[in-house]
Amino acid sequence: MSVHKRQQLGIYIDITNKKAAGQKAIAVLIDPEVTQGSQLIQVLSLAERSVVDYLFVGGSTATASQMEECLKLINEFSTIPCLIFPGSPEQINDRADALLFLSLLSGRNAELLIGKQVESVPTLRQCNLEIIPTGYLLIDGGNETTVAKISKTLPLSQTDPEAITNTALAGQYLGMQLIYLEAGSGAKNPVHNAIISQVSEALTIPLIVGGGLRTTKDADTALAAGADLIVVGNILEKEPTLIPALTQVVKKYNKILSQ
Ligand code: 1GP
Q1: What number of other Cβ atoms are within 10 A of residue 245's Cβ?
Q2: How many whole angstroms from 1 Cα to the centroid of ligand 1?
Q3: Count of structural domains within the chain
Q4: Ligand 1 geometric centre to CA of 94 (Å)
Q5: Full residue range of the structural domain in which residue 113 is found
Q6: % of the chain at pLDDT higher than 90
Q7: In this structure, what CATH number is given to the domain that contains residue 177?
Q8: What are the φ/ψ torsions at residue 215 (nearest 5 degrees)?
Q9: How much is the pTM?
Q10: What is the pLDDT of residues 86-140, one digit of tens each?
């Protein structure tokens, strides 16, 4: 594990500091089941050169050994802070810097609200990961996504922004430190800008938005609407060379703010 990374400022503090400064951020999502070997090294090298803020690592069905291999390469080829975005407790691995400790607030599957979290505690007690409580809301992206299928929950409809905002705020009132609006990997429609605006105006904690962001325009729209951190995964499995253009969109915001 990259001890030097752990000695830096905590990742959550880094995220909140960015928000307090009005800055935006981008995370590249790596699914260890899909992006491996030379393809992973290419993604890492592009992310490193483009100054991506965070790496999220995880997937709906990635195995513990795929996580292990992926994190070994990340630690060898990257200095970008790395957060586990777990699809299951088996994906928790001490080689990362932090864990998004997700609770699926949009669904009513008790296993994903609290069951898997309890199951993961013995592992977490052995780890030195920074644990970031994260309210995770699955939003209808127009097609059935793997996360909806696996979680056996229905996403919240984008036609009901009140329900989405109330769920996000309930997460904040419960003490969650981040809210993640998730349209699902490969979603046909990303979370709509009106929803992002309404939720970000209501929250005081940082807002993550991901799922179906494929273009610089999609990234720009989500950030302009109020996302503090955007997550891009699926499209980069096919077009990793999009990473520099995506980070330019984020930097454009940060440059405007620092003028
Ligand atoms: C999925 O929010 C992430 O969990 C990213 O979505 O893979 O569609 O970019 P994409």
Answers
A1: 13
A2: 26
A3: 1
A4: 23
A5: 3-258
A6: 90
A7: 3.20.20.390
A8: -130, 170
A9: 0.96
A10: 999 999 999 999 999 999 999 999 999 999 999 999 999 999 999 999 999 999 9
